[in-house]
Amino acid sequence: MSLHRERTTPADASYSVVTRETAPHDIGVRIAEDHALYIGTPTGDGVVIEGDLAAIAELVDLIHAHVHTTIADTRKADHR
Q: How many domains does the chain have?
């Protein structure tokens, strides 16, 4: 596995949910699955996560929950 990392900030990040048909135009790559989530820089450097739309939504939900848990834990630690 490679550890190549692109960096951006939340304010500068781009994201798109695309279909197999729209991916070449919207994110500049062909995908094999029905849907994909692109997260990256506005210039096109990033990650494409392909799969079932429900599985992509589940991943986004897990990321959302993790970030909010981390925020809550950080706030608790700051008030000690």
A: 1
Rg (CA), the chain: 15
Asked if 17 contacts 37 with a C-beta cutoff of 8 angstroms, the reply is: yes
Structure tokens at 75: 């706030």
Domain span at 46:
14-78
| pLDDT tens per residue across span 48-79 | 999 999 999 999 999 999 999 999 999 888 88
Element of type H or E holding 71: helix 53-78
Does residue 35 sit within a domain? yes
pTM of the model: 0.80
